Amino acid sequence: MALLLCGGWRLDQPEGRAEQQRWLAALEQALPGEEWILQSPADGAAAGRIDVAVVANPPPGSLQGLPALGLIQSLWAGVDRLLLDGTVPQEPPLCRMVDPAMNEAMVQTALWATLALHRGFFQCQRQQREALWRQPPQLRAAEWQVLVLGQGELGGRVGRALAGLGYAVTGWSRRPRPSEALQGRQGLHGADGLAQGLAAADTVINLLPLTDETRGFLDARRLAAFKRGASLINLARGAHLDEAALLAALDSGQVGHAVLDVFQQEPLPAPHPFWRHERVTVLPHTAAQTDPRSAAEVVAANVRAWRRGAPLLHRVERSQGY
Ligand code: NDP
């Protein structure tokens, strides 16, 4: 049997080809002796040998005509684009990436942004442009309420790390969490829980997956439910956020500052007002990247599990969208 490695890399450009080769090298090391087919099989015989597709936002149609395909393994944590692609076969299990290196990076980004917001360091940056010497108030971490939307692999880790620094952390998820899983954090769910969490938080961190239920989640109504002047950190997907509503909320003072890693359109177009807004911090979708070295080990574990009929890691519940 053979494995297909297929991604949305710009293969007409040297960076795209280098990225594909970086993945191939890591995967060959983690799964020695396998046949790898890149992007698409050359003929019907090659297509018939493919039992596993390892994908990174593959071009639509890439997974059609593979009669032996039994497992689709995403190299990315979010599978929203794959689930929207009507050409992706529905029968094979779909697994997403949970990469230790990416988890670590996401925690670092969330800690940095929360610390900077809590301690007023973004304000100091603005003041520097005007040579303004003014010390922001210094609150204890326990006096700073953080609401983490999503309590999965990433949201759970971010919440635990912030709680470890003493922040008052609340996590919001779709289903109630048993108290032992919360480890000192407050757990909320449902619409009432959300209203309670948004009204209390000084900083809201979005780590929800993008699904039918969460698309456009951070809209004008939800931003209006924030505590006045609270900050937003969006580390999940641009389509969660109504960007015009955020700009209005920033300009009215309803939202104090936004740290944004993801956008409706990426790269963020040069004329976009976020680039020049003094209370927006723009990151170029760099909060947490998958590291081929550690991610290849996760792929290898799943390929081996699938071939011996063992349970798969991080299987997506397609009906739920994550
Ligand atoms: P998980 O699937 O592990 O966790 C998802 C969490 O969201 C769960 O707690 C789930 O609740 C909750 N959730 C899902 N739907 C709803 C809903 N409708 N209402 C309330 N809660 C909901 O995902 P990860 O933590 O691994 O990743 C989250 C997202 O982060 C990814 O989908 C991706 O979009 C984004 N991401 C961004 C990166 C970046 O660089 N900016 C890098 C990697 C990921 P429950 O626990 O009840 O199921």
From TrEMBL:
UniProt keywords, alphabetically: NAD, Oxidoreductase
Alphabetized Pfam families for the sequence: 2-Hacid_dh_C
Record domain D-isomer specific 2-hydroxyacid dehydrogenase NAD-binding: where: 112-287
Record protein name field: Glyoxylate/hydroxypyruvate reductase A
Provenance organism: Roseateles subflavus
